[in-house]
Structure formats: structure tokens, C-alpha cells
Design goal:
463 residues, alpha+beta, seven-stranded antiparallel beta sheet, 5 helices, 21 strands, flat
């Protein structure tokens, strides 16, 4: 989940001696760094006397981000930190060398800043860059568990850039530029204006497939203006398609389109497990003859809550939509019992298709009911990913349940009223193709139950 930390530990360990430690201010803290997305804001072109201005700009930037979908719905999944780095002079370089405008577009100046923020990069006036290596070194030395870096440059002029690090200015559109660039660096979204053949490749919101029934965002087709819109202009642009015409990945000041929002949420779930902790855990001994026994989940909730929580005792559903449960002695069978709690995000901002996975966070308790009482044998949590596509389906559906270890999975298909239609078995961590051409059109519930008791219910549309 925090693979970036491991990579950076290898890459930057030799630089930590050189990188300076700076004061860090908490802008937004929702929980532990190892299970939240850590957004780090770092200033350039702010002098020591402008430290307060930087913090004010960082707070305004944070407010701007979390006022917009889907970040506002998933604000609880983020931490935001601001690193106070003082520059010798205020502002950013503008050498006046751009060839895409008649310079000087704004006053030519060269200033002494810590990260050397510079307009006119690669002869493009609005392309603002900085010393990314130095930024990475400083951030790693101060907040090694970071996930996304944004450089806030103390300049009133329009500009920015993306890549591994997003950079923006204090211009009125600066936060919009940075948010667009976060779309690139955090969620791997593509530009929805034509950026050139160099940037053309298959992505969440870019494809060469314009068939509305098989395009990777087919589940969104016809919803919120989503379609297959041809790119222009020049090079191979006519062979590429995007899902919208006014998404933030094309036009600043607009919302992220539904396809891009879906991709951002998927990335959030890649980083953050919705279940932070649970009780009882393996450090707790159940007291004999003390009932009822409480079971609790510490869950990170979206706003508004879109999580679907289900509880299953010995593969039978016993409760839903609650993060706590109490069980009595007569709820257990004699011998070994398995209690599982599953958490799935059921947000209507997601229309899962074959380029994404469904993240299922699970806690499993094994409980021994014997003549001496009830013992907690083991408890563990895991994140399971379910790939189920296409949905809707007409001929066949591919199901892949990724679990920590291979295990048998029982698949049962029910009509909405609860009637069993079919059942079969397959092995986790393999792609299982199930034909659906014999099923009548309609909505069905696909129920998957693993050997360890994890149960997942997913609605599937057959057309």
C-alpha cells in the first residue's frame, strides 16, 4: 500500500545526510501516516518573513482541494503537511526566454529561491518547473512516508507543471493547475486536451477504442455527459478518444469528469484500507462466560458514508451496515466458528469496469466454542481485490478474486428475490470465466465465499 516509501528509501537514502530538516506544520491530520494518503505541501520563493503567508496559502490550497469531488468525499483518507522552507528572495525566476509568447509576458527577473522555481522552462512561458531532485530529498528527510508532493511557488503569475511532483503558484488559478497536475501524478490520469504524440498512451481516460460497448469506461457511457470524444488536433490525435469535453483534465475550473473521479477513488483505495483497526485483536483474551462478546471495526468513512458493511458467521449473513456487533454464546456452534466483517465502498461515483478493481477490506475472527467456554483462536485483517468484468455482461463474465493465498471460492448466483440460480467453485488468484448467455436479462447477485469465510456480494447486470 505504501510501496512508494520502499522505493524512495532505496533511491534517497544516500541523500538524507545532505537534506536539511525544516519545521513542519500539520494542515490536516486524520490518522496514521501508514494508512492515510500523505499530501505534502512545500513552498518555494517564500522568505523567512513570509512563513506565515506560506502557511496561509497552504491552508487555502487544502481547502480548495477538499471542496471538490471526489476529494471532498474522501477527505478523511488524507493527511496534509506543510514544510516551511525559507528562500533568500521572494518569487520565481522568469528569464524571458519562452518562444510561445512575446516576452516579457510579465517582468523578467532572476531570484534566489531554495528550489529554483522557473518560468519559461523548455521555452514554454507557463511551464513552471523546479529542482525536483532537491524537493524530493527535502521531503524525504522530513516526511519519508509522503505519497504526493505539491510545490507552492510564491508567484502571482499563471503557471505550473506535473509529473512525479506537482507545482503551482499563488495565481487565482494556481490551485486548479496543481489539482490538474495531481490528477496526473497521483491518479495517472491523462490530459484530455491533445498534448502531443509523446504523451499518447492507453490510460484511465485515454484510449484508441471508440466502441461504446467495449470502451474501458463503458459503464459510464451516457451518464453525466460521458461518451467517446475524438481528440484533435494534429499528429495521431484523430485515433485517440477521451470520455468528456469539459473535464478538469482539459479545462481548468471545471469538475473532474465521472471517469476521472472514478480513477481517483480507485487510487485512494489502493493506498488506504478502510478498516484501520479492530477489536478483539490477538492481544485480547476473551473472558469465559462473559456475554455478549463485542466485535468492533475502526473504519475510515467517506462523507457522506458510502461503505457497505456486512457480517458473516460461518458464511451466513447475520448483520449489515454497522461497524460493531455483539454475539451471545448461543450464536456459536460447538467447535470452530469463523466470523468475518467485509467493507466495500458502494459509492455511486464508481462504476467499476475492467480497468479497475473492487477493494474489499476484511477482518476474520476464528473462535473456538468448547465445553470450557469460548476462546479467540486468531484474528487478522486483509485487503482482497475483486475483478469482475464486464458489468453489464451479455455472453460471459470474468471473475478474479485476489487473496493473500490460494483458496477455494464458492460462487453462488441469486435472483434479486433470493432464488438460487446457479453455483460453482473456482480457485482464487486465477481468472475464472463464467458464461452468462443462458441467464435472462436482469440484475443478479453474485455471492463469493472463500474458505476462510470471507463473503462478497456483488450485483451484476445481464443484458
Amino acid at each position: 500500500m505504501k510501496t512508494i516509501f520502499i522505493t524512495l528509501l532505496i533511491v534517497f537514502s544516500c541523500f538524507t545526510v545532505q537534506a536539511q530538516v525544516f519545521p513542519v506544520e500539520n494542515i490536516l491530520v486524520n490518522g496514521a501516516v501508514d494508512n492515510h494518503i500523505n499530501l505534502v505541501l512545500i513552498g518555494d520563493g517564500y522568505t523567512a518573513a513570509e512563513e506565515g503567508l506560506f502557511i496561509s496559502d497552504a491552508q487555502a490550497f487544502t481547502t480548495g482541494i477538499f471542496n471538490q469531488t471526489p476529494f471532498k468525499e474522501y477527505k478523511n483518507f488524507f493527511n496534509v503537511y506543510a514544510i516551511k522552507v525559507a528562500s533568500n528572495e521572494s518569487g520565481a525566476d522568469h528569464p524571458g526566454t519562452a518562444t510561445d509568447v512575446t516576452e516579457p509576458y510579465h517582468p523578467i527577473q532572476m531570484v534566489d529561491t531554495y528550489f529554483d522555481s522557473t518560468f519559461d522552462s523548455y521555452n514554454v512561458h507557463r511551464l513552471l518547473t523546479c529542482n525536483n531532485l532537491l524537493v524530493s530529498q527535502v521531503v524525504f528527510a522530513n516526511i519519508p512516508s509522503y505519497d504526493q508532493i505539491v510545490v507552492l511557488t510564491n508567484s502571482p503569475h499563471y503557471g505550473g507543471s506535473g509529473g512525479a511532483i506537482a507545482i503551482g503558484t499563488t495565481h487565482s488559478s494556481g490551485s486548479e493547475i496543481a489539482l490538474h497536475e495531481i490528477g496526473h501524478s497521483f491518479s495517472e490520469l491523462k490530459d484530455e486536451y491533445w498534448a502531443g504524440d509523446y504523451y499518447a498512451e492507453e490510460g484511465i481516460n485515454l484510449t484508441q477504442n471508440n466502441d461504446p460497448t467495449t470502451v474501458k469506461w463503458s459503464n459510464w457511457m451516457g451518464v453525466n455527459g460521458i461518451g467517446t470524444y475524438q481528440h484533435c488536433c494534429g499528429e495521431t490525435s484523430g485515433t485517440w478518444y477521451k470520455p468528456h469535453t469539459t473535464c478538469k483534465m482539459e479545462v481548468l475550473g471545471n469538475a473532474f469528469c465521472s471517469v476521472c473521479s472514478d480513477g481517483i477513488i480507485e487510487k485512494i483505495h489502493d493506498y488506504v484500507a478502510t478498516i484501520e483497526s479492530f477489536l478483539p485483536d490477538n492481544s485480547i483474551t476473551l473472558e469465559p462466560d462473559t456475554y455478549p462478546i463485542p466485535f468492533n471495526l475502526n473504519v475510515i468513512y467517506p462523507m457522506p458514508n458510502t461503505l457497505a458493511i456486512s457480517w458473516h458467521l460461518n458464511a451466513t449473513t447475520i448483520a449489515g451496515n454497522t461497524d460493531s456487533l455483539q454475539l451471545d454464546e448461543n450464536d456459536f456452534v460447538m467447535g470452530s466458528n469463523t466470523l468475518t466483517a467485509n467493507v466495500i465502498d458502494d459509492s455511486n461515483l464508481q462504476a467499476i469496469n475492467d480497468h479497475t478493481t473492487i477493494h474489499v477490506n476484511t477482518v476474520t475472527w476464528t473462535i473456538d466454542n468448547n465445553t470450557l467456554g469460548i476462546d479467540l483462536v486468531a484474528a487478522f485483517s486483509a485487503t482482497t481485490t475483486l475483478k469482475l468484468y464486464p458489468n453489464p455482461a451479455s455472453k460471459a463474465i470474468t471473475i478474479s478474486l485476489e487473496t493473500p493465498q490460494d483458496e477455494s471460492v464458492a460462487l453462488a448466483i441469486y435472483a434479486l428475490e433470493g432464488r438460487l440460480i446457479n453455483k460453482t467453485n473456482f480457485t482464487s488468484n486465477t481468472a475464472f470465466v463464467f458464461p452468462v448467455n443462458t441467464l435472462s436479462s436482469g440484475t443478479y447477485v453474485f455471492t463469493l465465499t472463500t474458505e476462510n469465510g470471507t463473503r462478497i456480494d456483488k450485483r451484476v447486470v445481464i443484458d
